[in-house]
Amino acid sequence: MKNKYLLLATMFAIVVGATNVYAGTGGSEFTEIYNLILGWTQGFLGKTLAVGAFLTGIAIGVVRQSLMAIALGIGAAMAVYYTPNIIDGIVTALL
């Protein structure tokens, strides 16, 4: 019985003491490196990696006579370009 009250009091303290968390707001310490990596992935380096992944997928697809490798190459190319935007949208979303 004591354990129930202790658990209830602990849960109440956690609920009452909880504060809002804003993960994507503030803190400009890493802005430079974020912009650098974002520029790499969405600039010429990212496009080069995307084309390389696509061409590698085509080459492996021709050797294996399968379209699955081409699909993986396209998926890797899309991941290189779109992942920073997806992560940015998830982290900066406020409820």
Number of helices: 4
What distance separates the N and C termini? 38 Å
Q: DSSP strand (E) fraction?
A: under 5%
How many runs of DSSP E, i.e. beta strands? 0
Order of helices and strands: HHHH
Instruction: Identify low-pLDDT runs.
Output: none
Q: What is the domain tally?
A: 1
Decide which structural class fits the backbone.
mainly alpha
Explain the overall architecture.
The protein is mainly α. It has one domain (2-91). 77% of the residues lie in helices and 0% in strands. The protein is elongated, with a radius of gyration of 23 Å.
Q: What labels would you give this structure?
A:
95 residues; mainly alpha
Short précis:
The chain has 95 residues and is mainly α. The protein has one domain (2-91).
Helix and strand layout, with pairings?
Elements: H1 2-17, H2 31-42, H3 44-64, H4 68-91
